Amino acid sequence: MRKYEMLYIVGPDLDEEQSNSLQERVAAIITEQGGQVVEAKQWGKRHLAYEIADFNDGIYIELHFEGTPQVVAELDRVLKITDGILRHMIVREDE
């Protein structure tokens, strides 16, 4: 399995419970597809470089996981249509 790093931004209008639920959903998608979450870090609320969906701030979450390209494709598909996630980026870590 390959190693990946993902950074996603959650809207600041979500409370802590909703944000944690969203994090659990992302982790569940990875494990359901046969991947494994290695580490998750919450950076906290930060100012965005530019306004996204009428928000000037966002909650940044960094996630390291292992999986196949199919895991990445499914995760990308689901995150694009998930309410509450403003932006996401998945990159493959170097060996």
Explain briefly what this protein structure is:
This protein has two helices and four strands; from the N terminus they run E-H-E-E-H-E.
What's the CATH class, please? Answer: Alpha Beta
Q: What structural class is derived from the secondary structure elements?
A: alpha+beta
Query: Largest sheet, if any?
Result: 4 strands, antiparallel
| Radius of gyration computed on alpha carbons | 13 Å
Distance between the termini: 11 Å
Instruction: Kindly report the spatial arrangement of strands forming the biggest sheet.
Output: 2-3-1-4
Pattern of helices and strands: EHEEHE
Which range best describes the helical content: under 10%, 10-25%, 25-40%, 40-55%, 55-70% or over 70%? 25-40%
The figure for the number of domains is 1
Q: Note poorly predicted spans.
A: none
What shape does the CA trace take? Answer: globular
Our estimate of the beta-strand percent is over 45%
Question: Got a strand count?
Answer: 4
CATH architectural arrangement: 2-Layer Sandwich
CATH H-tier superfamily: Ribosomal protein S6/Translation elongation factor EF1B
Average pLDDT figure: 93
User: If helices are DSSP runs of H or I spanning 4 or more residues, what is the number of helices?
Assistant: 2
> Could you say what the CATH topology is called?
Alpha-Beta Plaits
Question: What do these coordinates show?
Answer:
It is a single chain. The protein has 95 residues and is an alpha+beta fold. The protein contains 2 helices and 4 strands; from the N terminus they run E-H-E-E-H-E. The protein has helices spanning 16-32, 69-81, and strands spanning 2-10, 36-52, 55-67, 85-92. Strands 2-3-1-4 form a 4-stranded antiparallel beta sheet, with helices on one face. It is globular.
